[in-house]
Amino acid sequence: MSPATGVPPLTVTDLTVRFAGLTALDGVHLTVEPGTVHAVIGPNGAGKSTCLNVLSGVYRATCGSVRLGDHELTGLPPHRIAALGVARTFQNLALPPRTTVADSLLLGRHRLTRSGFVAAGLRLPSAVREERLHRARVREIAEFVGIAGHLGTPTGALPYGLQKLAELARALCMEPDLLLLDEPVAGMTADERRRTAAVVAGVRDSLGISIVLVEHDMGVVMRLADEVTVLDFGRRIAGGPPDTVQNDPAVIRAYLGTPDAPEDAA
Ligand SMILES: Nc1ncnc2c1ncn2[C@@H]1O[C@H](COP(=O)(O)OP(=O)(O)O)[C@@H](O)[C@H]1O
Ligand SMILES: [Mg+2]
Q: Which are the contacts of 110, defined by CB distance < 8 A and separation ≥ 6?
């Protein structure tokens, strides 16, 4: 498949998200260079999913800025952010179980569909031609991800790992510049993890798409990430290349807990 060209950098500055009485993100900054994998890691509740939710417009930032190239994303609704080339997958499965993989992927191309519903409903030649092109592209993407043999299967009938790959394929069907992945290998077998990691690496290396990877599996993070940002209680406690971050005392403390930390006062 041809690589994305002109992928813009993503720049997050001083990002803060507060929920009633709780600061989920506190002045976080990070930059995702074009065509790289930027991992966001940290213990449970650190603010990783909140970060993806702000980047995709699901949550609103309390303050701070998220820029994709020249575009300010904060304040835009999810469909506008998607239209600027940001696609995502969710921590939990999000594809309709009874819909075939092919139709789910085709729905992923919705924002790229030019002929409206009326033209498509009337089976006008332009709409038929367009649908044929979209189906061809869906097949190409399914082959890239390794699920082409399952295009006719209802998503819910596939093993978990393949369902997650179908979600990834659907996100790719939007032809994004930036892909947001929330724990893509969670719940997978070792085999499925290896396979998914290879697909993610392929997305970066062959398609040149930038990726924000939220992931618990440190093996996957260390193998895939070009750059890592570490969050703990909503704060950025470390950042840099994987091997630097891995040996950072603050990171080790955050993951292992501090043995001499005061117990809950109650
Ligand atoms: N919609 C929400 N309303 C209130 N609190 C939330 C909401 N979403 C997340 N939080 C809280 O924000 C913190 C960070 O959550 P989250 O971003 O899901 O962490 P992670 O993905 O790193 O495990 C948690 O304390 C969580 O309970
Ligand atoms: Mg999460």
A: none
Closest residue to atom 26 of ligand 1, CA basis:
45
Highest-scoring range by mean pLDDT, 81-95, 161-175, 244-258: 161-175
Is ligand 1 within 6 A of the CB of residue 69?
no
Residue with CA nearest ligand 1 atom 8: 50
Ligand 1 pocket member 255 (CB < 6 A): no
pLDDT greater than 80 at residue 115: no
Tell me the one-letter amino acid at 82.
A
Identify which of 57, 58, 66 has the alpha carbon closest to the alpha carbon of residue 29: 66
What average pLDDT does the segment 150-171 reach?
96
What is the whole-number distance in angstroms between the Cα of residue 182 and the centre of ligand 1?
13
* DSSP-H helix ranges across the chain: 48-55, 78-83, 101-108, 117-121, 125-145, 160-172, 190-202, 218-224, 242-246, 249-256
Task: Determine the number of helices (DSSP H) and then strands (DSSP E) in the chain.
Answer: 10, 10
pLDDT recorded at residue 91: 77
Give the pLDDT confidence of 219-240 residue by residue, as tens digits: 899 999 999 999 999 999 999 9
Atom of ligand 1 nearest to the CA of 47: 17
- Ligand 1 pocket residue status of 92, Cβ below 6 Å: no
Average pLDDT on 123-146 reads: 90
233 contacts 46 by C-beta, under 8 angstroms: yes
What sign has the CA pseudo-torsion 251, 231, 10, 94?
Answer: positive
Closest ligand to C-alpha of residue 40 is 1
Q: Residue 23 CA: which ligand is closest?
A: 1
Report which bound ligand comes closest to the CA of 229. 1
